[in-house]
Amino acid sequence: FQETLPSPPMRHIILIFSLISLVASDESSCTSSCSKTSIPQCGTWLSSERMKEVGGLYELGEGVMNVSCAFSSLPRPSSISWLHRPTSTSSWIPFTCSSKDDNIKCSTTAEQKTSSTCILRTSFLNMTGSYKCESKMDIDDSKASSSEVTISVVGIESVEIMDKSMKPGSTGFVEAKICANPQPEIWWSTGDGLVKPGQTLTNFASSHLAKSMERASPDGPASPLAYCYQVRLIVNNVRKGDSLSLLVRSHDGVSTTRIVSSSHTLYSFLSILLICSSLLL
Ligand SMILES: *[C@@H]1O[C@H](CO)[C@@H](O)[C@H](O)[C@H]1NC(C)=O
Ligand SMILES: *[C@@H]1O[C@H](CO)[C@@H](O)[C@H](O)[C@H]1NC(C)=O
């Protein structure tokens, strides 16, 4: 009885066995050895990124944020996720990139390499804030993060007339809600001229621009709605035929919202007057 097995057949067995396991599962080709205490150590590390250099202002509806990060890991490839934080005091929440390109480079002898490119179209003001990516290992929960990039999405998202009452001969009002970043400048264009928030002009008075509030439940507390403002115009005596519109400016954007157009009778009266005067001249 011999203690040692003949070596050539044993090598064959090992070779065949490892070939089978390679074919049977992708795991073995994406696994290299590591240790908890000595080098090479198990874990994940940031290897490269494109984050900070894309920080700045992005146009609402037109901007495209293009960020990427790459990590090394042992023993297995890490999984990369993208996180957003609206303000520096809020918590990080996963978000969905407009499009994403993930890559894994496997190795049986060295570190695994994972990378992710995230393209985000800045279609909402609430995409303002900080972004980062995170690499995580399922095995031991070890993590690594990229640096953060901070962006601001600027422009006018919406101008809405929330409520109004414009009955000729009585007192009227218009309530408007504007969502814009940065805080917009607004003017009411009235029959008497332009009225700014906080101003009074003969027949018109405007409230100050205030943060729009929202309630999760009717009897719950109200909290300010990010990037949204509210303003109210009081019309002392609504005159028939007066036109009224709201002008909004934020960043480079300007918007005009017609609230009351001049009545047809006034237009026809004016055109008749014009025709008559041209005939007389
Ligand atoms: C994102 O940026 C990289 C590097 O600058 C570039 O190669 C890639 O084409 C960009 N992707 C898009 C969709 O703009
Ligand atoms: C961001 O704003 C859009 C449009 O107002 C809204 O549909 C979306 O739910 C908001 N997202 C978050 C995370 O608040």
Briefly, what is this?
By secondary structure, the chain is mostly beta strands.
Structural features, described:
The protein has 281 residues and is mostly beta strands. It is built from 2 helices and 19 strands. It has helices at 7-24, 264-280; strands at 43-50, 56-59, 64-74, 79-85, 93-94, 99-105, 112-121, 129-136, 143-145, 149-165, 172-181, 185-190, 193-195, 200-201, 204-206, 210-215, 222-235, 244-250, 253-260. Strands 2, 4, 5, 8, 9, 10, 11, 14, 15, 16 and 17 form an 11-stranded mixed β-sheet that branches. A hairpin with a 6-residue loop joins strand 8 (129-136) and strand 9 (143-145). It is elongated, with a radius of gyration of 32 Å. The protein starts with 6 loop residues before the first helix and ends with a helix. The site of one 2-acetamido-2-deoxy-beta-D-glucopyranose has 2 residues, from loops. InterPro entries: Ig-like_dom (IPR007110). This is Ig-like domain-containing protein. Residues 61-152 form the Ig-like domain.
Which short descriptors sum up this protein?
four-stranded antiparallel sheet, 2 helices, eleven-stranded mixed sheet, binds 2-acetamido-2-deoxy-beta-D-glucopyranose, 281 residues
Average residue pLDDT: 87
Shape: elongated
Ligands (ions, cofactors included): 2-acetamido-2-deoxy-beta-D-glucopyranose
Low-confidence stretches: 1-6, 13-25
**Number of alpha- plus pi-helical segments:** 2
What kind of assembly state do the chains in view correspond to?
A: single chain
Largest sheet: 11 strands, mixed
Protein name: Ig-like domain-containing protein
Keywords: Signal
InterPro entries: Ig-like_dom
Signal peptide: 1-25
